[in-house]
Amino acid sequence: MSSLSRFASIRNGESLKTSQIPEIPISDFRSDILKMISSGKRLCALILNGKEKKPAGLLSVLADDAEGKLYLNSSEPVSSYPALTPDLPQAHLFEREIYENSGIVPEGHPWLKPVRRKPADEVVFFKEEGEEIHEVAVGPIHAGIIEPGHFRFQCHGETIHHLEIQLGYQHRGVEELLRKADRFSLSIAESICGDSAIAHGWAHCRALEALQRISPTLKAEVLRAILLETERLANHIGDLGAVSGDIGYLPASAYFGRLRGDFLNILMLISGNRYGKGFLELGGAAFDIPPQMRSQVIETLQRAKRHLNEIGEMFFGEPSVISRLEETGVISQKVCADLGLVGVAARASGKNLDVRQDHPYGFFRFRYIPTVKLTTGDVFARAMIRFLESQRSLDFLSAVLDSLPEGDLTVPRGKILEERLSVSLIEGWRGEICHIAISDAKGKLSRYKVIDPSFHNWMAVAMSVRQGEISDFPLCNKSFNLSYAGHDL
Q1: Planar angle of CA 193, 234, 272, nearest 5 degrees
Q2: Are 200 and 285 part of one and the same domain?
Q3: Which DSSP symbol is given to 469?
Q4: What does residue 283 show for φ and ψ, rounded to 5 degrees?
């Protein structure tokens, strides 16, 4: 029997009966995953399988980006198994989470440190010994207003040998709330990560719509895409301003910051708030964009496009800026592939990976946004990716708003079908967002799993500063701009 025959296959935003997912011995489960990875697939998720068995089994979701398919398999219940991480580094955080939540031991895992749950004063950190080695601890209390995170550096002089990042200081119980909240679940999904309210909200809607087998109208899909790309613009432009500020280039910092406000104001105009919360509805969208508002938005976008090009020319045309960004915080293509990076971080290191292209959903099935990739994997590449993607999002919005389709905003809701599993992928501005929903025999959610792109990418921050100077850390960190809240569910 081929390994492929031991997987069920669906496409993004679809569901299938849980009985269709093969349950196989753990040895086959592990070897089949490794064979699929070696053939070009990647690990999208590795979680507890959601069945009410003790001990539990594991469930994998592998993405075939070339064919636009998702492959799923599950293992028999286990109390321990040979860890995937030594052969598949991108599994390392998934296996640590599984161990933390269930006690299932991935034997041979190199560092089974808790992901979220252990009290901060009990956390054991890696420590380098030597007369000239010194340790620098930063956080978890932040000087600003962002969530807590702790960064522990092992340094020789100004050179960083090792950075260990400890998150998990907030425990909101998001996944359990999403499972139980019923009619309030969308509000919770929008609050998973405040700057990705549309992306997480849309992922949640699609996960439940798949379980109910309902499809929004074309009008609703276009409106959802408009809000998602506006959210992307606000954050990409904001990040360019933050990178400008971190290198002390204040003119660009101020201009990018002002321009970000234009996109936040578009979200405010359409949805009533600068996050876009409340715009999405299960089965569609809550608000239309009437002709007068549409004209106002188009005018703002045209002005923003002109200003973006002017500011970008000033920023990327300044030799002192380029010299500061190039060859700083490099993530090689091999490290990118080993860690399974997604989003901007992956595309900056040569990985042409974008859910809108590889696993298209909603209106992106009909209107393609060209992707951008670079190969240097440095701060410059991550900044340039944001700049170029912003231009493409502006082009997309201008074209779509010029000819919005007619139609209803929502379709009637259905009932969640029994014993089904759905996988919903959305390309948020940071990268791939994954929501997995599983229903029980009574048509209730028995399991809900959220994987924010930051879950895949935090290790890249630690790798980007190795052998760099500690003064480069703020710039490297900002060039990824990962989420604490998206990680600390």
Answers
A1: 75
A2: yes
A3: B
A4: 95, 0
Cβ neighbour number for residue 157 with a 10 Å cutoff:
10
Same domain, 189 and 279: yes
Q: Where are the alpha helices (DSSP H) in 319-417?
A: 319-325, 333-339, 343-348, 355-358, 379-401
**Total-model pTM:** 0.96
| CB contact at 8 A, 35 and 86 | no
Task: Determine the Cα–Cα distance for residues 388 and 164; give it in Å rounded to an integer.
Answer: 32
The residues, ordered by sequence, that sit 6+ positions from 324 with a Cβ below 8 Å of its Cβ are 247, 379, 475
- DSSP letter at 198 equals H
Residue 152 inside a domain? The answer is: no
Residue with tokens 């990076």, as numbered in its chain: 341
Q: What is the CATH number of the domain that holds 332?
A: 1.10.645.10
Report the distance separating Cα 215 and Cα 239, nearest Å: 34
DSSP letters for 427-461? E-SSSEEEEEEEE-TTSSEEEEEEE-HHHHHHHHH
Q: How many residues does the chain have?
A: 489
Q: Give the domain range for residue 87.
A: 3-107
The Cα 358–Cα 374 span in angstroms is 18
Phi, psi angle pair for 333, to nearest 5°: -65, -35
Asked whether residue 61 falls in the same domain as residue 187, the answer is no
How many structural domains comprise the chain? 2
Q: Tokens 């990409």 belong to which residue?
A: 236
Per-residue pLDDT reduced to its tens digit, 90-140: 999 999 999 999 999 999 999 898 898 766 667 788 888 888 899 999 888
CATH number for position 21: 3.30.460.80
Tell whether 457 is covered by a domain. Answer: no
Q: Does residue 75 sit within a domain?
A: yes
Residues 397, 398, 400: CA angle, nearest 5 degrees: 65
Q: Are 417 and 207 in contact (CB under 8 A)?
A: no
Residues 208 and 285 in one domain: yes
Phi, psi of 86 (to 5 degrees): -55, -30
Q: Tell me: the pLDDT tens digits for 379-416?
A: 999 999 999 999 999 999 999 998 899 999 999 999 99
- Kindly state whether residues 93 and 189 are assigned to the same domain: no
User: Rounded to whole angstroms, what are the CA distances from 267 to 197, 228, 240, 263, 388?
Assistant: 11, 10, 19, 6, 21
Tokens coding 482: 């990962």
Q: Where are the beta strands (DSSP E) in 175-330?
A: 280-281, 284-285
Helical ranges in 272-376 per DSSP H: 291-316, 319-325, 333-339, 343-348, 355-358
